[in-house]
Amino acid sequence: MTTLKPETREKLKSVSTATLCTALYKRGLRNQFIQDVRPLNPDLSTMVGEAFTLRYIPAREDLNPITVFQDRAHPQRKAVEECPPGAVMVIDSRKDARAASAGGILVSRLMKRGVAGVVTDGGFRDSLEISRLAIPAYHSRPSAPTNLTHHQALDINVPIGCGDVPVWPGDVVVGDGDGVVVIPAHLADEIASEAVEMTAFEDFVQEEVLKGRSILGLYPPTDEQTHTDFAAWRKAKGR
Questions:
Q1: How many other C-beta atoms can be found within 10 angstroms of the C-beta atom of residue 120?
Q2: Rounded CA gap, 122 and 37, in Å?
Q3: How far is CA 234 from the centre of its chain?
Q4: Strand spans (E) along the chain
Q5: What is the mean pLDDT of each run of 10 residues along the chain (239 residues)?
Q6: Helix H or strand E encompassing 125
Q7: Cβ neighbours of residue 44 under 8 Å, at least 6 residues apart?
Q8: Phi, psi at 40, each rounded to 5°
Q9: Which end of the chain has fewer CB atoms at under 10 Å, N or C?
Q10: Is the pTM of this model over 0.70?
């Protein structure tokens, strides 16, 4: 079961990963953006959920025949059936896309179980099929070979690395068109609230810039007039 507060989830759905990265940077956290992953369907809504992790190690051929999938306790299959609704499955594939981390059938199963999304620093097979599903999915590139070719599923819901980012089970994972950011669980509420405030100001700035206003004194807001104008804008917008 997820413990992410509903109001925090909704706040995070309304902000960008760029804004979240800045809020994390202010707290000294500079390595929370998963590197080299992209959405298969950037038009889906923002992905938000707590991390449920799966760890692969390099495959050893004598332990990784195709028959391992007949075992109901196989870690990959088990993870797909145990990832909680509302969570995000995060897969440590060691940034190795030579073989798939998962394919269309497993991602479809995650979707039908109510999982909020899936992220791998490797690749998915059936990527075109996955791009048409109503579940956010992020990977580095398509990869047709079965995961057994290069990956051996080993651990479920343990700390992992994904795209050079440390991910603990329960960390809050947010994905949009730019990519995926990981928020330490204990910071999720305050980061979400701050990001909402930052987004309001950034929306105001964007409108002012499109009107032709200089960024000097506006972004960052060093002029008193900026604060006055923002307060008036916010009142008018009801934000």
A1: 30
A2: 8
A3: 29
A4: 38-39, 47-58, 88-92, 100-102, 117-120, 123-124, 137-139, 151-156, 160-162, 165-167, 172-175, 180-183
A5: 86 98 98 98 97 97 93 95 98 98 98 98 98 98 97 97 98 98 98 98 97 97 96 95
A6: none
A7: 134, 135, 136
A8: -70, -30
A9: N
A10: yes
